[in-house]
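Thread: assembly with ligand

MN 10:42: here's the input set. Chains plus the small molecule as SMILES. Want everything predicted jointly, not piecewise.
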Amino acid sequence: MATKRITFRLYPNKEQNDKLHYWRRDCLSTRETGNGAVGIDFGTHHALALDDGTVIDNPKFLKQNQQKISQAAKKARRKRNPQKGVKASRRWKKAAKEVGKIQSLVARQRQNWHHQVDPLIVSCNSLVATEKLNLKGMTKKAKKGSKRKKQKTGLNRSILDVGIGNLKSLIKSKVTEAGGFYVEVPTQKVKPSQTCPNCGHQKKKTLAERVHNCEKCSYSCDRDVASAKVCLNYARGMERASLDAESPSSTLCGSMKQLGTMKRQKRLSQR
Ligand SMILES: [Zn+2]
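BT 11:07: finished. Tokens for the full assembly:
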């Protein structure tokens, strides 16, 4: 039997179709951003902690739907699944589809949340500093026979439930699109979670320690917020270095913080 290929167009007329594309090109909106600077720390306890003390909690979409997924998966397990030489039953296919439906719902919920969170950051900040994370290493499976296998699995699940990688790349692309700076702090060099944002004193913390208390300058704040502050300090330092290289004479006016803001303002207005 001969098959016929059909292509769909929004408008049947080619001219009209082209017009639509022109219209779309003209209406491309430009993203705008403010002059602020922000440091962000991603985590599982607080999904995001900003350097000004704002914390955005993890909505835990997977955890909310975990029971439903487990129930659906159990149903599927009891049907004839595809094995070597055995065809999967129609009932298995149906049950497996049900599992996939809930999982994709979770993914969509998470993505929607990401798109709600990133404008909060991008809309008013043109300098965004975060730490570089080795997500693949962080969410590695526990070794075989490890005593803390269950804990590790749970930790991995809650890290992945935030969707840090996707959220970071969204923020990165939106900030750079708006003409801002996105800085990733090298974690091994700077150690944001161990450093005091006030005096730079380094001390290791355990995961259970939720509050940063400096021994040296007795500075105290939330652990994740402290880490975000360290990231921002580092990014400011980088910005300062680049400004010094660009214009050594202009460093005389105002503080460095103001200078960075002015420079970014100028860059944004030039666009
Ligand atoms: Zn300190």
